[in-house]
Amino acid sequence: MVQSKSWIMTNHFDGFPKDSNFKLKVEELSELKDGEVLLEAVFLSVDPYMRPFSQFYMKEGDVMIGTQVAKVIQSKNPAFPLGSHVVAHSGWRSHSLGDGSNLTPIMPEWPQNVSLSLALGTIGMPGLTALYGIEEVLGLKAGETLFVNAAAGAVGSVVGQIAKIMGCKVVGSAGSDAKVAFLKELGFDQAFNYKTVGSLEEALRSASPEGYDCFFENVGGPSSSVVIQQMKDFGRIAVCGSISTYNDAAPQTGTCSYMTINLKQLKMEGFMQARWAHKHPDSLKRLLEWVKEGKLQCREHITRGFENMPAAFMGLLKGDNIGKAIVAV
Q1: For the CA atoms of the chain, what is the radius of gyration?
Q2: Buried b or exposed e, range 56-74, using 16+ CB within 10 angstroms
Q3: Cβ of 111: how many Cβ atoms within 10 Å?
Q4: Any idea where the domains of the chain sit in the sequence?
Q5: Of 79, 141, 65, 107, whose CA–CA distance to 280 is shortest?
Q6: Hey, which residues does 303 pair with through a beta bridge?
Q7: Residue 275: its pLDDT value, please?
Q8: Helical (H) or strand (E) element with 208
């Protein structure tokens, strides 16, 4: 018998999550049946979407949702040989049983010198989100100007780099001077700390006096209206997330300037990367090639120890991370 540890949500969050919202549960897993595999977590992803998803779609006592890179330690399924690695939607679990239906094998061409944790970041869901937001939603073109907020996070940092690969001007905002320095390392044309600038409007205008063709939105809240005022006519906005609102006890209101959207004839579209799942295999190969060629740099904020999952999650929501937040078991 194998013991599995899992983190469950004891009660729904009231504002910002607290330690008391989580409980570590230990259980013994049953023996494998034909067609099943036993997984052991190696890396677990910590992502902003976990906050709203848990609030609206989970019940008290459920295991926290999440994705992990796991090693197959027992197998009765020939599609997943012993010792192979997979991306699994197993939640915050140290070990899990499955029939293979929610498992994606790590691509066979994965280089030995590239950490498998990147399958949860730049060469995984965040990277795909960045790629599809740019190509499928924004339709970004060479020579255009893009603004991305939360630009030092897992998605935003890839957005900016892909836009530079495409030959665009990129402006990013982040919440600390260290994050701004990171953005400049990545090749952003302009970057600023939104917490210390005197005026967001002035910072945006200074970074790109001619305005913005595209806006990759990760933050939400009142700042969005300020950015929208700086958009060029017929600009495009890809709404990926709204992390500034996730811990609010009550929904924010009056944070979007619909008159400006109308007068400037802007296109604004929310999206999730799963819409283009049929493109994932080829898209992941493209991301991997850019990493191998040095065109995409990958920064990770690694927390060690499965017991620190709640702390890593709360740290992410406070903005502690630069790049992708990962827990290494």
Answers
A1: 20
A2: eebeeeebbbbbbbbbbeb
A3: 9
A4: 2-121+299-328, 125-274
A5: 107
A6: 327
A7: 97
A8: none
CATH of 125-274, one of 3.40.50.150, 3.40.50.970, 2.40.50.200, 3.40.50.720: 3.40.50.720
Q: How far apart are CA 124 and CA 218, in angstroms?
A: 18
The one-letter amino acid code at 309 reads M
Closest residue by Cα to residue 202 from 179, 176, 242, 229: 229
Write out residues in the chain with pLDDT < 50, as ranges.
none
Going by C-beta distance under 8 Å and a sequence separation of 6 or more, which residues neighbour residue 47? Answer: 66, 67, 125, 126, 154, 316, 325
Token pair in block for residue 144: 């255009």
Distance from first CA to last CA of the chain, Å, rounded?
A: 20
3-state helix, strand, coil in the chain (%, to 5): 35, 30, 40
Q: How many helices (H) and strands (E) does the chain have?
A: 9, 15
pLDDT at 260: 86
In the numeric block, the tokens 């740099």 are attached to 297
Q: How far apart are CA 236 and CA 278, in angstroms?
A: 24
Q: What is the pLDDT of residue 152?
A: 98
pLDDT of residue 293: 97
Residues 6+ apart with CB under 8 A from 30: 97
- The model scores a pTM over 0.70: yes
CA distance 213 to 211: 7
User: What type of residue is 107?
Assistant: M
What is the structure's pLDDT at 65? 96
Q: How far is CA 288 from CA 124, 125, 312, 328, in A?
A: 10, 13, 26, 21
Q: Looking at domain 2-121+299-328, does it have CATH number 3.90.180.10? A: yes
